[in-house]
């Protein structure tokens, strides 16, 4: 703002004076966020923040300005695009889940321009398809963990040792009890009869008829008697 006082005098004329006031304002500008002031992307996505600055009074794009950003994604400088004067850009990548606020401020070394701040809201969300994929992966992981855990338990309990060894281990554990374990012991006669019948069954598969009818019956309870022969006399030379 400038103030001037002017006066006019001339002989035979009435003098006159007046005060002049000149106001010089800054040049108006317009900042446009080309990439949008509200942006929605997927989680892990990227954003090319792109703005343009326009000199409204002179109807030209403003170059060589200093454009900065700050907010939830940190702070930095937007670089002017050499192929598009008046356009300034910054690149953000691998953005996590959430909503972010970005503030854009512009300055110019001459001080002739009037700038206003711009605010950009960036939201990174998970789509419905990604939610289903995450749930599917989680369920598959749980099923796999249960399967592996069940196999490990079964291996330790059943598959690690053969059945005969497992029975021995089980019997050894019962020995630590105060009461004696119950063990079924069959008699010698019953055992011999069982083995005899099993052997006859195997032989009968190769010859017709019942082999039991052709063989003499054995009395298991009778004791076999053996006659002792007297020793032969020694031969004299």
Task: Describe, in plain words, how this protein is organized in 3D.
Among the domains are: 27-126, Immunoglobulins (Immunoglobulin-like); 129-169. The chain is 27% helix and 31% strand. The strands form two sheets. Strands 3, 4, 5, 6, 7, 8, 9, 10, 11 and 12 form a ten-stranded mixed beta sheet that branches. A hairpin with a 4-residue loop joins β7 and β8. Mean pLDDT is 77; it is low at 220-228. The chain is α+β, with helices and mostly antiparallel strands. The protein has helices at 128-159, 163-174, 188-204, 211-214; strands spanning 2-8, 16-22, 27-33, 38-42, 47-55, 60-61, 66-71, 76-80, 87-92, 98-107, 113-114, 118-125. It is rod-shaped. The relative contact order is 0.10. Keywords: Membrane, Transmembrane, Transmembrane helix. Residues 208-237 are annotated as: Disordered. The chain crosses the membrane at residues 132-154.
Shape: rod-shaped
Reported for the largest beta sheet, the result is: 10 strands, mixed
Q: Helix-strand pattern, N to C?
A: EEEEEEEEEEEEHHHH
Overall mean pLDDT stands at: 77
Region (Disordered): 208-237
Keywords: Membrane, Transmembrane, Transmembrane helix
Biased composition (Basic and acidic residues): 209-237
Transmembrane segments: 132-154
Helix and strand topology:
Layout: E1 2-8, E2 16-22, E3 27-33, E4 38-42, E5 47-55, E6 60-61, E7 66-71, E8 76-80, E9 87-92, E10 98-107, E11 113-114, E12 118-125, H1 128-159, H2 163-174, H3 188-204, H4 211-214
Parallel strand pairs: 3-11, 4-12
Antiparallel strand pairs: 1-2, 3-5, 5-6, 5-9, 7-8, 7-10, 8-9, 10-12
């Amino acid at each position: 703002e400038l103030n001037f006082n002017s006066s006019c005098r001339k002989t035979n004329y009435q003098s006159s004076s007046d005060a002049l006031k000149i106001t010089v304002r800054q040049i108006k500008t317009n900042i446009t966020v080309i990439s949008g002031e509200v942006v929605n992307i997927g989680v892990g996505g990227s954003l090319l923040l792109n703005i343009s600055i326009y000199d409204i009074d002179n109807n030209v794009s403003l170059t060589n300005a200093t454009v900065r950003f700050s907010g939830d994604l940190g702070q930095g400088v937007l670089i002017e695009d050499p192929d598009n004067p008046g356009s300034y850009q910054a690149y953000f990548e691998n953005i996590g889940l959430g909503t972010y606020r970005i503030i854009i401020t512009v300055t110019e070394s001459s001080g002739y321009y009037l700038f206003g701040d711009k605010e950009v809201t960036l939201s990174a969300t998970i789509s419905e398809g990604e939610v289903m994929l995450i749930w599917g992966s989680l369920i598959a992981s749980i099923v796999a963990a249960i399967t592996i855990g069940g196999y490990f338990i079964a291996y330790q309990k059943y598959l690690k040792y053969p059945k005969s060894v497992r029975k021995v281990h089980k019997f050894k554990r019962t020995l630590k009890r105060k009461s004696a374990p119950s063990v079924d012991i069959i008699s010698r006669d019953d055992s011999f009869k069982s083995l005899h019948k099993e052997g006859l069954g195997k032989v009968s598969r190769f010859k017709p008829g019942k082999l039991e009818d052709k063989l003499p019956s054995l009395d298991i309870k009778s004791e076999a008697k053996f006659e002792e022969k007297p020793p032969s006399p020694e031969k004299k030379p």
